Amino acid sequence: MRSILKTNTALALVLMISGGAASAQDNGVEVLHWWTSGGEAAALNVLKEDLEGQGIGWTDMPVAGGGGEQAMTVLRARVTAGNAPTAVQGLGFDIVDWAKQGSLADLNTVAAQEGWDDVVPSALQEFAKIDGKWVSAPVNVHSTNWVWANKAVLDANGIAVPTTWDEFTAALETLKAAGITPIAHGGQAWQDATVFDAVAMSVLGPDGYQAAFIDLDEDVLGGAKMQEAFERMDVIRANVDENFSGRDWNLATAMVINGEAGFQMMGDWAKGEFLNAGKVPDQDFLCFRFPGTAEQVTFNADQFMMFDQGGAVSDEQAALASAILSPSFQSAFNVVKGSVPARTDVSDEAFDACGKKGMADLAAAAASGNLFGSMAHGHAAPASVKNAVYDVVTAHFNGEFDSEEAVAELVDAVSIAK
Ligand code: GAL
Q1: How far apart are CA 412 and CA 418, in angstroms?
Q2: Which atom from ligand 1 is nearest to the alpha carbon of 65?
Q3: Which of 159, 205, 302, 336 shows the smallest number of beta carbons within 10 Å?
Q4: Which pLDDT tens digit goes with each residue over 151-171?
Q5: Distance between CA 242 and CA 172 in Å, rounded?
């Protein structure tokens, strides 16, 4: 299906909507997702194999496009056509929306049998248990305020891990002078917004991030600090290569892996690409929080929503949900994916240095009130607001607005969207 999508998107869309190419196997599940990069596919295989081991067939419905925007478009078309897939990868407020529309099956029986209430963190339950009903199975917790670096490139240029904005900009200058692309980036709206998530957190601080992107406070959205965040985006823009526009995120990660670029600011799904290329944390690559956000975690959690197929949740949907929440799967899957478990009782033993740090950071941020839903990945505000922020951030990144104009546009766009 992936090659069809690349060569003939229109035909693929028709097949997807009609279900002609992807009707669920008997006794199986049809799973719509956007995990198509090397690292993502390797992680998804862990889930496929788990289900196959239980004799449950898997009909794969990949829709390429990082962040899942295209997948959500295909999903809407499928649901409108009365042909919803069995299980669908979803994020944050999108899950809440589908639940409120009554499209999702009730997983309360399996959740009660397995005690999900006690082991899934409350920040995730907000997006998985809607009006007292479990509607989706959380697979992981990712976070967006990470930087990934090529260790040999940093060492060769005498660069230590930057912990402040000034140290970071000095490192960018050093790399540029050495003829290395300082920041690997893909110019797509969701990637621009992912970078902005971290930059905004570092400038606004946790209270400002909460006020701007979760409470949608116009004073903060339109304030001097927000303008400073956009000014820092100008600095980032000045340190990407000239071919950044439209590049997929995993190709940007490859630039860091290959030593063409020094850093990438990206969620921890990037780690899946390093691992898939046989690279080792602390040896080949470094992971650290974006300077100025060491205490904070901006998170997003992938989940599988179970779509109501008419009637009670099917045995296959319940089995898929149960497999996803099992502690052994949570460890095996997240070790490969780059994320951390969606349950609080999974040991960090099998995780590498970045995974251990991710788990410790998440627990510490949750305990200290420093855990925030990611704006870029649909956990801070509903899709309409998220898309409004995307539009402004991307237009600014591409030079359509200066930073002062961007702030004014942001206030307007959010107030229309909310
Ligand atoms: C995120 C998702 C991750 C990863 C990423 C890039 O939205 O949560 O699992 O897939 O997109 O595709």
Answers
A1: 10
A2: 12
A3: 205
A4: 999 999 999 999 999 999 999
A5: 16
**Mean per-residue pLDDT, 247-272:** 98
**Poorest-pLDDT segment among 9-18, 120-129, 201-210, 240-249:** 9-18
Tell me the CA–centroid distance for residue 174 and ligand 1, in Å.
31
Q: Give DSSP secondary structure letters for 28-84.
A: EEEEEE---SHHHHHHHHHHHHHHHHTT-EEEEEE---GGGHHHHHHHHHHHHTT--
For residues 351 and 359, what is the distance between their CA atoms, to the nearest angstrom?
9
As a whole number, mean pLDDT of residues 354-372 equals 98
Would you put residue 308 in left (φ > 0), alpha (ψ -120 to 50) or beta? beta
pLDDT of residue 267: 98
Residue 22: pLDDT above 70? Answer: no
Residue whose CB lies within 8 A of the most ligand 1 atoms, among 302, 379, 390, for a mutation test: 302
Distance 418 CA to ligand 1 centre (A): 24
Token reading at 97: 């929306």
Closest CA to 195 of 256, 263, 262: 263
Return the ligand 1 atom nearest residue 249 CA: 6
Q: What is the dihedral of CA 213, 206, 198, 391, to 10 degrees?
A: 10
Please classify residue 404 by burial: count the beta carbons closer than 10 Å to its beta carbon, then call 0-12 exposed, 13-18 middle and 19+ buried.
exposed
Whether 21 shows a pLDDT value over 50: the answer reads no
Tell me which residues have their CB closer than 6 angstroms to ligand 1: 34-35, 40, 66-68, 91, 142, 249, 269, 300, 302, 377
302: β partners: 91
Domains of the chain, first to last: 2-139+303-354 (3.40.190.10), 143-298+367-417 (3.40.190.10)
Q: Which amino acid is at 91?
A: L
| Dihedral in degrees, nearest 10, Cα atoms 40, 46, 52, 58 | -20
Q: Ligand 1 atom 6: the closest Cα is on which residue?
A: 66
Which two tokens mark 79? 């649901």
Q: What is the pTM of this model?
A: 0.94
* Nearest residue by C-alpha to atom 10 in ligand 1: 35
